[in-house]
Specification:
It holds the Pfam family HSP70. Helices cover 46% and strands 19% of the residues. Helix 14 links the parallel strand 15 and strand 16.
Length: 453
Amino acid sequence: MRLGIDFGTSNSAAAVVRDGRVEPIRFGAADQFRTTVYFPGAMQDPGDFQPDPAQEHELQQLMDSAARDARAAGQPRPVESLRREALRVLRRQWMENRIAEPRSSSQLLQNAVYGDAALEAYFEENEGNLVQSPKSMLGYNLHPRARQTITGIATHILEHIRLTASAQLGIPVREALLGRPVQFRSSIGEAGNDQALAILREAAVAAGFDQVEFMEEPAAAAMHYHATSAETHEAIIVDIGGGTTDVAHARVGGSEPPRIHRAWGIARGGTDIDLALSLATYMPLFGRGITRVPTHHYVEAATVQDMTRQRDFRQHRYDHVEDPWGSRLQALQDTGNTARLYREVERAKIALSSATGHASPLPFIEAGLQASASADGLGQAASGYMGQLRELLQQVRQDIGTAPQAVFLTGGMSRAGYLRQAAVDIFPDSHHVHGDASFGVVQGLALAAGGDH
């Protein structure tokens, strides 16, 4: 039996076809779980690093060398920037030495907790490590040790899915069809796609899958839509997720198998709206735009999916920043508080899809502190992503040359009315169908996986 797996940026799900019907895998009381894992003691905290006299000497040498290179290139750099970069090099070496201590990966990642329970365990324990949305890091330029860590985390998530499915189905599950975006989020171009797939394949094999194949997520969504369509027609499939937005042009419906003509994708999604909303509405409470704290500090704090940026944020000192901003930034550096803030941002984004305002209490930062978000503010925060979405859909319309009979929307962000309206604006003459926002892709993956067996 082959399992369809939607390893998502925000949430993950799995399903199979059994007795001719799609059966979702249950994770506790739900059909999906937040793609978040909490585990104690697996990663060293760079915050523990303090240069000794020999390292201070090496630090100065690194700074001097980088300064010479910058001057030679005609681009002199500030001392603060040179020191920050040199510290990163030394911290990385220190971490590698610490991690090289003999401990097995099973010891490092044992007792993992997944989904929303991972957040709660992290907040309750106030120690250990929390990794959110590891999928968003798969295509980035990773140091070998960071790649090993991300692969280990992905392995544990996929193993959690496999073992849960095996228990529910009563048989060992050894084959999987994994969804993949058209374009992974990447800092290294097309090589990021290859790297992300290699990491996922390695992780799936380590998780106990003997056979692993991939299917583009909009093609999987087309399979789901096809199964519900009685008549054959041309359709555009739009899958708007947390980290990526994918589109497919397909012939679906009727008795013939669906035919995917072409796919498009951008590495942008709901998490980009989260980041913009956080910076515009929440970070001013910490002095953004008011103090002289550099903007990138706030980006680091808000980007909870990026372990490197989170660690960099915890390195900064704010004892020189005037209150209340300095004390609030120091409170935000406390264990778990960037994750708590991000959860409030997510809640606000969801609430503002149907309300004009939303208040977020922030007692973990300061007694009585709260952020007030508005629907207009969300619209402004989403404007950057909306421009990219409209550009993508315009490109699709131009490439296919004709208006499709239907536009099918799925993915977690497809619930938002302002995103649905963008599709209506670009394809006004098409019939618009709103699919299962959370499970359209995984149902299609299950159908595709079951079709070959």
